[in-house]
Specification:
With 350 residues, the protein is mostly beta strands. It has one helix spanning 38-42; strands at 19-25, 45-47, 60-67, 71-79, 98-104, 112-118, 124-131, 137-140, 150-156, 167-175, 204-214, 222-226, 249-258, 270-274, 282-287, 293-297, 303-306, 310-312, 315-320, 328-335, 341-348. The protein has two domains: 19-258, Sandwich (Immunoglobulin-like), CATH 2.60.40; 270-348, Macroglobulin (MG2) domain (Immunoglobulin-like).
């Protein structure tokens, strides 16, 4: 698989607050762990390379973030020469490759935030936190509806085989529906708590993302990198503390729109759906070269159907007869050998 890594030269660490601008995609994002859709190419990217706890040994990761009408998407490309994921049950993932993400969708109350930790075997720790002024946290392990978060991977190597690997890529889809409020049994929501979901243009969230790297290929030590760090050390300079809201950066939701529906489409190509909306059978007519991949994507970005076209370049036809899937907006996505994509939305009625 092709990894979109950018090798990063050695940089001096700056603890100024970072901001990543998040574009709005009207095109399909297939949550398959491979960041190869054109919309990812247009998304703003940033490096996760800061090592405020010292001892950093060259961990490198590139992060991109997108949004659509229903969710926020985090895409990661990771350089990793030794991929480790031992934990398969429970939540003891501290000895594995681990991503830790913090989201505060109410920027006026950044000390109250959601967290998600996970390894490459989909073992997760998740919940809600309140960060005190000391940097220590009140904990609540209840995060209602967090099982709706989708995480997918593509590994370039073999997990735990002690042989030099290349890296891995990851996509995370976090529906806005999981931020329904500060739902907690341990402490009360702050006065005026109001998560900005779904975010409108120019809304700001507080956000951070950390990586714990295991490197068994060289040794058994861990090292940590973080996207943003503002110089706060609530546990002391030598204490690794990834969840202090004072160190969060910001993500800014832009007016900029990304649409692949007409991106690179040739004048001779045309995709038509009939009827649209539909109930039992959708006809897909396409004029142009044969796609290398033709799928139907569900609202959460998963593959709901695979299309097989008949005919020739002047008139190709496929039919989709979905069974046992709910009504909603689906996306017909055609991908071509030169990297172009065409996508059109359809509405399934029941």
């Amino acid at each position: 698989m092709l990894f979109l890594f950018l090798l990063i030269s050695a940089l001096s660490v700056s603890y100024a607050g970072d901001t990543l601008r998040v574009k709005h995609s009207f095109a399909a994002v297939s949550v398959d762990g491979i960041l190869n859709e054109p919309v990812w190419m247009e998304a703003e990217s940033t490096d996760v390379i800061k090592t405020p706890w010292g001892g950093g040994r060259g961990s490198r990761m590139k992060m991109r973030i997108l949004r659509d009408d229903s969710a926020i998407y985090i895409g990661l490309n990771v350089i990793d020469t030794s991929i480790v994921a031992v934990c398969t049950t429970g939540t003891s993932i501290d000895g594995d490759e681990m991503i830790e993400m913090h989201i505060s969708p109410d920027a006026a109350n950044p000390a109250y935030f959601y967290y998600l930790e996970h390894n490459l075997r989909q073992i997760r720790r998740k919940g809600i936190r309140h960060s005190q002024s000391s940097g220590k946290n009140d904990w609540n392990t209840v995060w209602p509806n967090s099982d709706q978060i989708t995480i997918t991977y593509k590994v370039n190597g073999t997990i735990n085989d002690q042989v030099r690997d290349t890296g891995w890529s990851e996509e995370i889809r976090v529906p806005f529906s999981v931020f329904t409020g500060w739902q907690t049994t341990l402490y009360a929501a702050p006065a005026g708590w109001k998560p900005a979901t779904p975010p409108s243009d120019s809304v700001v969230w507080r956000f951070n993302l950390c990586r714990q790297n295991q490197n068994y290929y060289k040794d058994s030590l861990s090292d940590w990198t973080i996207w943003n760090h503002n110089g706060n050390y609530p546990y002391g300079v030598t204490g690794v503390h990834l969840h202090d809201h004072n160190n969060f950066g910001t993500i800014l939701f832009l007016k900029d729109r990304i649409s692949a529906e007409k991106r690179g489409v040739k004048d001779s190509e045309k995709l038509e759906l009939s009827p649209n909306p539909f109930r039992s059978s959708l006809g897909i007519n396409f004029r142009g070269e044969k796609p290398v991949k033709s799928v139907i994507l569900s609202p959460d970005g998963k593959v709901a159907g695979i299309l097989e076209f008949s005919g020739n370049g002047k008139n190709r036809h496929a039919e989709w007869k979905p069974k046992n899937i709910p009504a909603g907006v689906y996306i017909v996505l055609l991908s071509f050998a030169d990297g172009r994509q065409i996508s059109v939305k359809t509405l399934l009625l029941r």
